[in-house]
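Hey team,

Sharing the TonB-dependent receptor run so nobody has to redo it. Sequence (785 residues) first:
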Amino acid sequence: MIRTFSLRSAAALAIVAVLATAPAVAQPTSADTAPIQRDEGDITTSQDIVVLGSVGYRGRSDEAEPVLSYDSEFFQRFEPLTAGDALKRVPSVTFLSDVIESDGARLRGLPPGYTQILINGERVPGNGDDRSFFMDRIPAELIDRVEILRSSSARRTGDAVAGTINIELRDGFELDGGYVRAGALYFDDEELEPSLGLVYGGKVGPGRLLVGLNFQGRHNPKRKRSLRYGDSPENDPDFRVNEFDNREDQSDTRDGKDYSANASYEIDGETTGFRISGFYVRTDRTETERSFEYDDPTAISGPLPSGNLLTDNRNVNNIDQENYSIDARLSHDWSLGKTTLRLGHARFDDKQRESENEIDFDVDYDDGEVPVFEQAFTATDIVDKEYTAKLDHEFDLGHDIQLVVGGFYQKKKRNTAILDADGEEDFPGLETSYDQFADSPDDLLSPFDPLEPTDGGVSRIEERRLDGFALVQGKSGGLTWEAGIRYETTRFDITDFTEAAAIPTQRNEYEKWLPSASVKFDLTSRDRITASVARTNRRPDFNFISPALLEEEVGDSDLLGNPQLGPETAWGFDLGYERRIGRTGIVGINAFYRDVTDLIELTNTGEEGSEGEGTFVYQPQNVGDGKVWGVEFDLSTDLGFLGLPDTGLFGNVSWLDSEITDFAGKRRFNGQSDYVYNIGFVQDIPRWGVAFGATHRKQGAAYDRVISEEVRTTYGADLEIFVEKRIGSNFTIRAVGSNLLNGAKREVFNKFDNLEDQQTRDFDEYELESEKAGPVFQLMARYAF
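Structure output:
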């Protein structure tokens, strides 16, 4: 908590610092902005993108920060559909998504909220309560390169405990000419989805223009099975026989279309540069689930009382999401240095309409009870808007040393509206006439009750940030270094309109000093050592700062939000070594450590919960500490030193670990896999105009423990193969097979009614769930013009 005048003094500090030095942006790192002055002779032609002349490899950054850079050529031959698909091939990125989906990136295995996601060096809003941005919202066709920033810098916001992922989209200086992309994807359920794209870049007037359009059919048919038991496997070795409760068979199909566009216009003058860019993505998606619960491990007969069907449920969620960002940058060289002004606006609109209809046949027929039909409808509308302004100045101190100062302002507004309605009706005789394979719960629809706000479901959050930073950077011989400090201030107001009569608008303020330093030393022309230290933070989840009381949110207990939560903070250290191999190869190893304080954990307020004796009201507090560490190895090289210059080999493996002490003892950070690896190769045959390759990926088990529930998640391996044929200098056709091992996700759930039962291992339910999806085949063609 800070006093009101602290924000004002921070504003004065930032403004005075910038104006006093007069003009520009910190010497840009690859994740900030590319240097404004660029040579048109280095622009890639469309033929170079369509007809790849060599195998793509990991880039080597010359900035002080530890940065891994992967150009689109590194991913393109495996035809990733989204940025998330592309990230599956870079070190230390895991996902806990559904099978064949890659949404919330978990850098170093930590939950998505610990990773900072940037698009063209700028933050973008997402719909997640943890402030994360789903990477499957960005089509891979828009990407120029992906950068993994392992440590933090004073020049960027410090919301990067695990690190930063920066997605650089193509711009006018990345492409000369145009190309079209067309193809289709074939799925395991015989569904065919189109994929179309168009990209053009060229000189227009005094600058360069790039425009990209993309249309992508999305489809994911999955099959799930859950086996549920009523007692602990620890207490009964024969629990699968003695304690079987029910089985659920579920089909889960995600079907939709993505429409996207990006554009940029850039002018490079001798002393002045200007760029305006933006992207737009719309997702139109329907998620359909059909679930049958049976009282037998294998039977599929009809409803009780004569059959085995307990419930029939159909759930449909219609999702309409729009996400766009506009960014303008103006830079100018003055006598004292360079000044850069950057203005941005980003918005995320999320509209979801979800209906759930269920027939419950599990009633006491002997007492005259009849099947019950239940229906529920939920309407969700989230609008997240951000406005940002950055003003930086860099000037030369001599001896190849620069001083950089700057200020940053962000205004964020998030409006949430979640309304629901339900209904219930008895249907006598339904058990004798219902066929679950021909009929559906949707056949019994009746008018819904009026929509009502859910608890805490209608709210507004307004967040204002004002930061100042200063850093010094330089080069001397083989040493490149940077040291700086960032002062971040935050003030937010949250209003819960569902509780407006009892709870007025809540306000919180806090400030953080975030120092950082990085060095990079070239031992030889091939060998390099990198080291960095930085303090970072993670802001509280939106659902935790809501003042609403949510009944039965923690098992049978209640959850009370805490608007006075502060951010988690962490000191981080990275130490790495990398070596060039042959012409283009790199091998590297990096060790990292994070010491996290002020962790947000649920604490017992001592108040009795809404369900009475044995239940409580829990509230999040900054009471925990944690540690995260690991080792990351990556290799990317051709085999020219073995006489195979057209064979590319790449791979990475990360060993990840952490420790938190919670209500039940020690555990890892929730959802952190203990390892992840990727290996692959690309073989080019230039004289035939042919190339082929494969990748294999696997991530280790992840464990989650919260009050009243524990989950262990494992994934099967993923295999992808491609074959391409180049025809002339303008045309390429490529076939790709992914998920060729029929990837499976398996989860084990331990469920409890309350914390006391969890500590004594008195299970409410034990569940084994498996989810599978079949292979996906793509046929894609590109033509350059």
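Confidence is low (pLDDT under 50) at residues 1-37.

Ping me if you want the raw files.
A.
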